[in-house]
Amino acid sequence: MAFVLAGSLRFHVQRLPAPTGAGAPDRPVVVFLHGLVVDNLSSFYCPLAVPAARSGHEVVLYDLRGHGRTERPATGYDSRTAVRDLFSLLRALDLGQRPVHLVGNSYGGTLALHAALARPDLVTGLTLLEPPLGGAWVENMVDTLSAAALSLEDSPVPAELLTLRLRKAANLTAIADSLLNRTSLIDDIAASRTFAPADYARLHCPVLVVCGEHSELVPGARELVRHAPHGALRILPDLGHDVLKESSGVLRESVLAHLDTTAVVAARPRAGVLVP
Fold it and tell me: pTM above the 0.90 mark?
């Protein structure tokens, strides 16, 4: 476990090097972005991060602002700040000049997409797992988070969980309460900018979107791959929004194959893109 100061915030970071002699020094660094509130970097660790490192990729995982063990300021939970956090952290890790492949789950996929649009010179590949993209998800998410905030306000649940020695559950519940009731997260999500076909058309890196067959996010994913020049969609049967938890084997194979393919593409000169 490591803590890294980036900007004015202390981030909890895990960094997994590629095996000695594996890969190339200019190969994109694979950076994992987790989902909202009760999620953290541990969601990726065993299913995807360790396999990616073992297959020759340098890997960075971190807890987003306010999540997990990262510091929890009162404000700054909008996507623009999250993108600044990401690239500030990479600079603090001396990776600011390296190309990156972003792997985002749920809201982390949304942030990965914002980052790719903001820095096409650095983001050379995207893997988006169940990314919420359309306008309806903002209203639905705000309603869900607001209901959760109300149920957690002054709740005795964290203390009761500790009494039962369920420390991990108690910690996650306390973090959720703090994020939802003591930060600007819900207001920042409510003000989120959604994506349009013109945004997807600007994605010139390879993009893999993975969704569960029964997920309500499939229509948005289909629109993305319809407009992205190098987009591909993988639908996993019999699953909903839980592809990261419930489909580790199939998902791992798809993600590792995409990482290898995009590493090859990233090694080629890209016309019209300035590499710092």
Answer: yes
